[in-house]
């Protein structure tokens, strides 16, 4: 083979390889174009899906925003309406408050005017009608004196109260009151003539007697016994055997049998240990008498003391010094009266009551000014308070006769209801 043939073969080979390469490149480019179209289609589809999703989401969001916006608008309108209603209520309250302030100001001004008028009237009363207050004070004192006299049987305190009433009237220096002051002096003289009784002293004396009951000695109940033999000793002489036998027999039987001669003059017999009940019965009678003293029960007082005196004389030795002193004190208390006749009325009380009617109460009934009713009510309240105080108040020096008597030595009485005469 020649070189031309070899060259031609090379050329042919090169042409063939070139054609192959062109064919390969053409197929590769077509494949690339198809893959690019597929990718583009996929990208377009994805974009379409994304765009549709965004469009749907946007539509949903817009509808939700529109709904929320509508709700907010509705709430805002409701709030505006409520605000308007609240504003109207506030305006009404402000208006009402203004009216109340105006009314309060008017009422305060009216009250201040009435207070000034009342103060002026009270000032005029305190300056020009002091005498009427002194009359009311004297009337109060006289009423208190009557209550102390009739309720507590205390003429001393009653006389002191009458003296205070007379002092109040004397401060007025009014000649028209001489008749009332004369009646007060007459009442004081009547009270001074009353016999004073020391009720506390009587109760203390009864307590002391109760303490001395245990010191009383019982009467000797062997005074009526048969006389004993002068000589009871046994003789040593055998010839006196009969006398010795008789003396021994009497000495032996004296411990079993006691023979006593009794007549009507002897004290009644007491059973053993019955003196305890006797003493307690005496104490109980003294206690009853002590309790009757502040109640002014003179009959009960005397009956109790007489019963105690009877028992002491019947069962105790009346010759003993302690018994004699006891009976002397008991008889003195029996003769001591505890009830005193008190005056049934006080002359000055009726006259002061009439004076109160003509002066004080007539003054209180006058109500010529706007504050007259208030002044009248205040004065009547003062008068009522004075009357209540007259009912409730008790001076400190009048408390001595209202204490409950106590018998310090009185023990609980056992079988006290039985009479000593039935215990023998």
Automatic annotation (TrEMBL):
<feature type="coiled-coil region">
    <location>
        <begin position="62"/>
        <end position="128"/>
    </location>
</feature>
<feature type="compositionally biased region" description="Low complexity">
    <location>
        <begin position="405"/>
        <end position="417"/>
    </location>
</feature>
<keyword id="KW-0812">Transmembrane</keyword>
<protein>
    <submittedName>
        <fullName>Uroporphyrinogen-III C-methyltransferase</fullName>
        <ecNumber>2.1.1.107</ecNumber>
    </submittedName>
</protein>
<dbReference type="Pfam" id="PF04375">
    <property type="entry name" value="HemX"/>
</dbReference>
<feature type="compositionally biased region" description="Basic and acidic residues">
    <location>
        <begin position="1"/>
        <end position="23"/>
    </location>
</feature>
<keyword id="KW-0489">Methyltransferase</keyword>
<keyword id="KW-0472">Membrane</keyword>
<feature type="transmembrane region" description="Helical">
    <location>
        <begin position="37"/>
        <end position="57"/>
    </location>
</feature>
<feature type="region of interest" description="Disordered">
    <location>
        <begin position="396"/>
        <end position="424"/>
    </location>
</feature>
<dbReference type="InterPro" id="IPR007470">
    <property type="entry name" value="HemX"/>
</dbReference>
<feature type="region of interest" description="Disordered">
    <location>
        <begin position="1"/>
        <end position="33"/>
    </location>
</feature>
<keyword id="KW-1133">Transmembrane helix</keyword>
<dbReference type="GO" id="GO:0004851">
    <property type="term" value="F:uroporphyrin-III C-methyltransferase activity"/>
</dbReference>
<keyword id="KW-0808">Transferase</keyword>
<dbReference type="GO" id="GO:0032259">
    <property type="term" value="P:methylation"/>
</dbReference>
<keyword id="KW-0175">Coiled coil</keyword>
């Amino acid at each position: 083979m020649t070189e031309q043939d070899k060259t031609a073969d090379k050329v042919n080979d090169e042409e063939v390889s070139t054609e192959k390469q062109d064919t390969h490149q053409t197929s590769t480019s077509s494949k690339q174009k198809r893959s690019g179209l597929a990718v583009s289609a996929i990208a377009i589809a994805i974009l379409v899906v994304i765009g549709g999703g965004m469009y749907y989401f946007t539509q949903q969001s817009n509808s939700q925003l529109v709904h929320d916006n509508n709700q907010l608008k509705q709430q805002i309108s409701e709030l505006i309406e409520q605000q308007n209603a609240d504003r109207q209520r506030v305006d009404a309250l402000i208006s009402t408050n203004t009216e109340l302030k105006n009314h309060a100001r008017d009422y305060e001004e009216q009250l201040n005017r009435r207070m000034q008028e009342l103060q002026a009237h009270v000032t005029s009363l305190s300056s020009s009608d002091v005498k009427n207050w002194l009359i009311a004070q004297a009337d109060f004192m006289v009423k208190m004196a009557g209550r102390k006299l009739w309720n507590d049987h205390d003429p001393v305190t009653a006389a002191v109260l009458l003296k205070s009433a007379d002092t109040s009237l004397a401060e007025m220096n009014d000649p028209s009151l001489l008749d009332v002051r004369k009646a007060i002096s007459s009442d004081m003289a009547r009270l001074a003539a009353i016999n004073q009784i020391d009720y506390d002293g009587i109760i203390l004396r009864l307590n002391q007697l109760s303490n001395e009951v245990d010191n009383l000695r019982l009467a000797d109940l062997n005074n009526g016994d048969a006389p004993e033999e002068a000589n009871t000793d046994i003789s040593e002489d055998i010839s006196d055997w009969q006398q010795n036998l008789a003396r021994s027999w009497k000495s032996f039987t004296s411990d079993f049998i006691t023979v006593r001669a009794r007549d009507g003059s002897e004290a009644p017999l007491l059973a053993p240990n019955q003196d305890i009940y006797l003493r307690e019965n005496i104490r109980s009678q003294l206690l009853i008498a002590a309790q009757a003293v502040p109640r002014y029960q003179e009959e009960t007082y005397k009956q109790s003391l007489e019963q105690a005196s009877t028992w002491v004389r019947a069962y105790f030795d009346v010759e003993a010094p302690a018994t004699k002193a006891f009976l002397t004190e008991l008889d003195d208390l029996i003769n001591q009266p505890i009830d005193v006749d008190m005056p049934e009325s006080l002359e000055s009380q009726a006259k002061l009551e009439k004076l109160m009617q003509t002066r004080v109460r007539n003054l209180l009934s006058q109500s010529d000014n706007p504050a007259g009713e208030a002044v009248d009510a205040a004065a009547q309240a003062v008068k009522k308070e004075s009357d209540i105080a007259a009912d409730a108040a008790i001076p400190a020096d009048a408390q001595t006769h209202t204490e409950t008597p106590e018998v310090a030595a009185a023990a609980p009485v056992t079988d006290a209801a039985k009479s000593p005469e039935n215990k023998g």
